[in-house]
């Protein structure tokens, strides 16, 4: 394949390293961008190529946090940071907006708020002024009806929800979305495990594979058959995820350190989970015990759901999503299984979005 590269206009991009540019086929009028638009984070993936001609999938992550109105005004007197306009309303997007809007509902996937967060992902990725083909995701339960058929009603709502796209404040050129593809979460992660970046199959299913996608607001479980099809009776979605760990940890920290819950932001909780440290009045407190307690609390709610679907004849259980590494030990006793039975891919939080990009490239090209 011959590539055409994005012109070097010195645009900032979360996805580009020094010497890299975005990649597209010579016959294509657009670049491909995948956005795993979750309740906790938007994960991005795009093809990039370096000066030596080596192509790879580049990934990045943005918090799913936006607040109605103009907040977080620049301390130097500039415009609000991460400001977007849609339908004559302004939203501010950022890790530390003080009062982010709630997004844990079934209508989030086609909401105005999701439009704003997707727009932020596109512009932060560096595609201002470009034409792109975009992919986003849906939880399993929203992508399929109970009978296993595509939920076309919801899928059509999602397709329409990004027309028009929110406009960034500050004079950036608009983005042209040539096509909007929608994929099922967890199934996309399976594709990421199944094929490599060259489109070659590197794994296979002998008896069955269970994909456990622990996301922000939901956990999707997909039973994949040897024919690479989803077995719906062995699959499902439960409304529990990483944000429930945040919620429980907030309660525990508030009680332990006498801090009002309203003063504990999600970015603080995210840092506490990653570092086991929480800053209280200038003092760094070790909160390992609290973090573990919060994880165990949420894991108990998921265990029965997962265990009911685990079969002794499975080839693998594949843990993906933002909560894969965080909760895998609490969800399963790894000593009960043979080595290699439980698979946690490299950077599992990006499994879905890498799979989406592979589907765009190798299936829906």
Describe it.
- The protein has 365 residues and is of the alpha+beta class.
- The protein has three domains: 3-184, ATPase, nucleotide binding domain (Nucleotidyltransferase, domain 5), CATH 3.30.420; 209-240 and 302-348, 2-Layer Sandwich (Nucleotidyltransferase, domain 5); 242-294, no CATH class.
- It has nine helices and 18 strands.
- The protein has helices at 112-125, 140-143, 152-161, 187-194, 242-257, 266-275, 288-307, 324-331, 351-362, and strands at 3-5, 21-25, 31-37, 41-49, 55-63, 66-68, 83-86, 89-93, 131-138, 167-168, 176-184, 209-214, 219-224, 236-238, 277-280, 283-286, 316-320, 342-343.
- The longest helix is centred in the last third of the chain and has 20 residues, at 288-307.
Query: What's the domain count?
Result: 3
Order of helices and strands: EEEEEEEEHEHHEEHEEEHHEEHEHEH
Helix percent reads 25-40%
Biggest sheet character: 7 strands, mixed
Indicate the radius of gyration in whole angstroms.
21 Å
Our measurement of the CA-to-CA distance between the termini, rounded to an integer number of angstroms, reads 13 Å
